[in-house]
UniProtKB/TrEMBL annotation:
Catalyzes the condensation of pantoate with beta-alanine in an ATP-dependent reaction via a pantoyl-adenylate intermediate. It is an enzyme of class 6 (ligase). Keywords: ATP-binding, Cytoplasm, Ligase, Nucleotide-binding, Pantothenate biosynthesis. This is Pantothenate synthetase. The lineage of its organism: Bacteria, Bacillati, Actinomycetota, Actinomycetes, Micromonosporales. It catalyses: (R)-pantoate + beta-alanine + ATP = (R)-pantothenate + AMP + diphosphate + H(+). The gene is panC. One of its GO terms (molecular function) is pantoate-beta-alanine ligase activity. It is found in: Cytoplasm. Belongs to the pantothenate synthetase family. InterPro entries: Cyt_trans-like (IPR004821), Pantoate_ligase (IPR003721), Pantoate_ligase_C (IPR042176), Rossmann-like_a/b/a_fold (IPR014729). Homodimer. One of its GO terms (cellular component) is cytosol.
């Protein structure tokens, strides 16, 4: 049975009933099969699964529409039930921020200022602040984050390491449509034509991965990815297409690396990434 709680007090009671390991999956709702995969990963590893559903105002910029973000709690509960979640914590903004917006926030450091942080200033301060609060409220042994939001995953890992938060952060591979499009709550904003253009992101990653598997070095992998992006259906406006090391530190020369892409498709910002293994420079 899945128990729905809205207050800190009810969450504390439900948490106290959890004997054994606890896994937490944090979401902003509008759950899709990508989230369901996170929940199932949690179900496999933990004795109890808590899902949080909270649209966090702190991570919305002034031009991003917090009020228009989809809120679909009934459908979300159905997904949670199907995936075997034990507790769903869906607090109000006042429950999460009883004293108003917090004046002390988590500083994501240099990693938070790059990539997504460049076009969304303050975004990762808001994300890490609510993630830390939710970790304090739920006190899990494990927490599960999708690799789709790779920079978020890297920053949560970094925060837990740097601030000694006693939780294992588990990354869960991205779920894709059969044609390669990474599942995202934002895909619902795409028209049919935009969805076609959106495939350019995964096509670029695929080309990079294929090049790496064929023995290409960093420069050739990036060149292959850029060429595939350029050859895709017009309509995707590239923001960045970069190679980093697996922890998002700058510039790998060889070995395990991450290829990350972000683009605007119409009014929708999309991101995607893939693991690659780079051959040494000849
Ligand atoms: O990835 C998300 O949905 C959000 O950034 C998170 C981690 C739930 C924090 O609000």
């Amino acid at each position: 049975m899945t128990e729905l709680v809205h207050t800190r007090a009810d969450l504390a009671t439900a948490r106290a009933d959890c004997k054994g390991t606890v896994g937490v999956v944090m979401t902003m709702g509008a759950l899709h099969s990508g989230h369901e995969t996170l929940l199932r990963a949690a179900r496999e590893r933990a004795d109890h699964v808590i899902v949080t559903v909270f649209v966090n105002p702190l991570q919305f910029g002034p031009t991003e529409d917090f009020d228009r973000y989809p809120r679909t709690l009934d459908a979300d509960l159905e997904v949670c039930r199907r995936a075997g979640a034990d507790v769903v914590f869906a607090p109000s903004v006042t429950q999460m921020y009883p004293d108003g917006q917090p004046s002390v926030r988590i500083d994501p450091g240099p990693l938070g200022a790059d990539l997504e942080g460049l076009s969304r200033p303050g975004f990762f301060h808001g994300v890490l602040t609510v993630v830390l609060k939710l970790l304090q409220l739920t006190r899990p042994d494990l927490t599960f984050f999708g690799e789709k939001d790779y920079q978020q995953l890297a920053l949560v890992r970094r925060m837990c390491r740097d601030l000694d938060v006693p939780v294992e952060v588990v990354g869960v591979p991205t779920v894709r449509e059969p044609d390669g499009l990474a599942l995202s709550s934002r895909n619902r904003y795409l028209s049919a034509g935009e969805r076609e253009a959106a495939l350019t992101l995964s096509a670029a990653l695929r080309a990079g991965v294929d090049a790496a598997e064929a023995g290409a070095d960093a420069g050739a992998v990036l060149a292959a990815a850029h060429a595939a992006f350029g050859a895709g259906t017009p309509g995707a406006d590239l923001d960045y297409l970069v190679l980093t090391d697996p922890d998002l530190e700058p510039g790998p020369v060889a070995g395990p690396a991450r290829l990350l892409v972000a683009a605007w498709v119409g009014g929708t910002r999309l991101i995607d990434n893939a693991a690659v293994h780079l051959a040494p420079r000849p």
